[in-house]
Amino acid sequence: MSLSFNDAQLLLKEHHLLIDSSKGVADEFTSVTYDSRKVTPESLFFCKGNFKAEYLASAVEKGATGYVSEKKYATSAQLAYLIVKDVQKAMALLGAAFYGYPQNDLFIIGITGTKGKTTSAYLTKGILDQANHGKTALFSTVDRTVGPRPEDTFKSNLTTPESLDLFHDMRTAVDNGMTHLVMEVSSQAYKKNRVYGLHYNVGVFLNISPDHVGENEHPTFEDYLICKEQILANSDYCILNADTEHFTDIYYAAKSDIDADHLITFTHLDKNELPDGKQIDIQIENVKETLMASTFKLHALSKKAQDLKIENQYTISIPGDYNEGNATSAIIAALLAKVQSNDAVKGLKDVKIAGRMEMVETKQHGLVYIDYAHNYASLHALLEFLRSQQKVDHLIVVVGSTGNKGVSRRAGFGKAITEGADYAILTSDDPGYEDPMQIAKEIDQHIDHEKVKVQFELDREKAIAQAITMAHPGDVVVLAGKGEDKYQKINGVDTPYPNDLNVAKKIVEGLEDE
């Protein structure tokens, strides 16, 4: 892989980003990076984020021959530079060029939403893998898969990675024979221009609810919504969940960006009209639901849906009507990728998603559920579902909230707990640089103590032990927020943590061995 200085300069000019430039002695760059620790000779170095001049000095010392920045630095005349209006946009454009535009060799499905992105992504991959014999790459909150070998799947550090990492992994996927890519697209990916210039064959908008509003994320909900809606303007086809909040805004935003024939909507509800009076395309009918699975039918209400040949009965191994919606988006996206509905039926039924609706059964302490539910919408839906499926004597929730981001989640957790729980143990969940007790107290302020008994235990393993120990047959314990996360983010350090499922299993084994 390489990128010539002249090509980089021309590309930035074409996008009206270039302010000033100097070639120095650099004809060609053989690597691109924003991390001074990863610089190799003939690197093009990007000065981004909370940048310090010493990072550039370190990069030059290691052999960088050029840099991209929004500011000019005093350096040797031999060092090339490209001064730009927006370094994040420049990095996305030049990263795609350096890696040979790998997106052109992939059918890309982008998925956004406040909840359900990861579930939808895994379900979509399951269907596509059934049809293309495992040639589907995945960029998710949990894992990134860039090839068929075990070593080609690894832990993600961001829902949507930085643009250079994104295009690097796309190139690896293409070189490994992958033909499709399913990727979660976060609001921050648009806020920080990580996906600037990237186009999707299919864009999925699952839902939106107040979340990710805080000092290090979005200043307002309106900003959050606008960032989410950017996927609509950058997709050939759009799939919309008509049951989401703010659907009218989302629908009209989609209509303004794409042709009506390329906009597909679905609903769980007994409604068939869109905000402009047109017909909803697909309706979901629940057939059977247990704590272990959901079976549902899809009905084609419009000519568009009929042309997809989507009508069939499907089963997923994760329950809940919200997961039927996630699966429906996956089915539609896969059919747009020319998959047959029978492949969707086969591909869906065995998909397992780590950290989503996992269950530990006990002899004397009820059922324990582990789920990544990390905001009001997902926790409320989970608790409501559990109540609807069986008689629950007491519902005990263990939950914390992340520090330095998603501050609005704290009030949401309090509201969801009040609506669905009997007991709450407030604990820690990636507190970052904040005091976990202060975070817990903020959640507690929004809990109605006449309805819910609340305890504090900031050691998460002890909190889980406390919840399971206090549970009796007929009770349900919900461990919310972390899923299969194997670390706690504390004061800038990823502190190892066994994950909620392993902790719960160990505690149950200990109790039942007594």
UniProtKB/TrEMBL annotation:
**Quick check: keyword tRNA processing in the entry?**
no
Q: Enumerate the UniProt keywords alphabetically.
A: ATP-binding, Cell cycle, Cell division, Cell shape, Cell wall biogenesis/degradation, Cytoplasm, Ligase, Magnesium, Nucleotide-binding, Peptidoglycan synthesis
PTM details?
Carboxylation is probably crucial for Mg(2+) binding and, consequently, for the gamma-phosphate positioning of ATP.
According to UniProt, this protein's pathway is:
Cell wall biogenesis; peptidoglycan biosynthesis
Top EC class, one word = ligase
- Tell me the Pfam families matching this sequence: Mur_ligase_C, Mur_ligase_M
Annotated residues that bind UDP-N-acetyl-alpha-D-muramoyl-L-alanyl-D-glutamate are located at: 36, 159-160, 186, 194
Q: Which domain of life is it from?
A: Bacteria
Q: Where is the Mur ligase C-terminal domain?
A: 355-483
The cofactors named for this UniProt entry are: Mg(2+)
**Location in or out of the cell:** Cytoplasm
Give residues annotated as binding ATP: 113-119
Q: What is the documented function of this protein?
A: Catalyzes the addition of an amino acid to the nucleotide precursor UDP-N-acetylmuramoyl-L-alanyl-D-glutamate (UMAG) in the biosynthesis of bacterial cell-wall peptidoglycan.
Task: Write out the similarity annotation.
Answer: Belongs to the MurCDEF family. MurE subfamily.
Q: What is the protein's given name? A: UDP-N-acetylmuramyl-tripeptide synthetase
